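Batch job 17 of 40 flagged for manual review because the log was empty.
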Amino acid sequence: MCAGRFFSHFTMMFLAVSAVCCGRREFVSNDALLGDAVSMASEGKWSEARDLASRAVIQDGKDARARVMLALALEQSGQDGLALEEIVQGADLDPESFMAQFTKGRMLFKRGRYEDCPVPLKKALELKPDSTETLMLLARTNTYLKVHKEAVANFAALAKLAGYRDRPEAYNELGVLFMNQKDFRRALSFFDVALGKDAENVTVNINLAVLWDTIHSESGKDSPRRAQAAENALMYYSKAEKLMLSNPAAEVRRQAVLRRMKDIRRETRHPGMS
């Protein structure tokens, strides 16, 4: 998740508290400096935004808005370590700021510090219960931490929100969770729902193929279930491969799918589909 996607949150937060004309550089207040920083960032001029936010932090180190803006600018400038330091201070200064808490959780997640993510993300969700970005990130955090029950609850809640109700992502993630738990029946039911939301979704088709491929691999050689699982795996792999044909960026993945299809046919002596 990139900072740019959530920059509008900061812009709205800043405009809500600032009534100073931000384009006039003769003003040296933090409102003016941060206003200019927002303008620079909106134009993709993150280096200039970083310098302005840094001035604001130097002028008032207890201004949480300045810390958040500087953190975002540092991140966009490739200085993730410094960005995390700034956002931690910003979140501590303003524990009731959704943007500060969410960004802290997001940056911690980006750095692989999953065990430190739940506290700021849960606070962000408390401040903004309908934030799909926060709920998705919290669900993925719990997945990494192997807190299975909470991850399932997070994804299930996400599936009920307007932004995801008619999309496959949450149901696909639930399918992956249960597949990893070897609960293939429940995994299949969630993948089927996801496919119903978007039949042309490459990821869902591949996950269904992997599910059936796993069942095929774990079934006894003489089991009738093995042959049917191979048939289903080939069907979903084939569909995913065709969907990837028009996407050059997916060529490596497509070739991997073709190799696996070839292996399944060899293992089962299945003439299969081309």
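Reviewer: the log was empty due to a logging misconfiguration, but the result itself is present. Residues 33 and 52 are 6 Å apart (CA to CA). Unflagging and moving on to job 18.
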